[in-house]
């Protein structure tokens, strides 16, 4: 039975797949947009977001970023594919990318905000 990771531990046991490859869970915040196309970018950003949504990886889009969760290799492949959607059309394309790489954990797109909400709620009872 897999051991539950300790959220407060500095290092985690790195799980592996059936072939022994390390499973490196990653949450990415990515913003992909072209330069020089005018003030409104939504038409272009939506093309990149569509690639991310079609990837099959868990994702969510907010006003500034699209968050993606999965194995590091899969996340980076999706970011590349979404970037190429614009770059292949000839647009100079900017990518802002932040990665939280945390072996041993999964479901962090939901768990991290839930933990923050729990801490805030506990503090309101003081």
From TrEMBL:
GO cellular component, one term: cytosol
Name the record gives this protein: Thiamine-binding protein domain-containing protein
Protein's organism: Bifidobacterium choerinum
Organism superkingdom: Bacteria
UniProt similarity note: Belongs to the UPF0045 family.
Phylogenetic placement of the source organism: Bacteria, Bacillati, Actinomycetota, Actinomycetes, Bifidobacteriales
Pfam family, one: Thiamine_BP
Domain Thiamine-binding protein residues, every copy: 28-116
Gene3D superfamilies registered for this protein in UniProt: 3.30.70.930
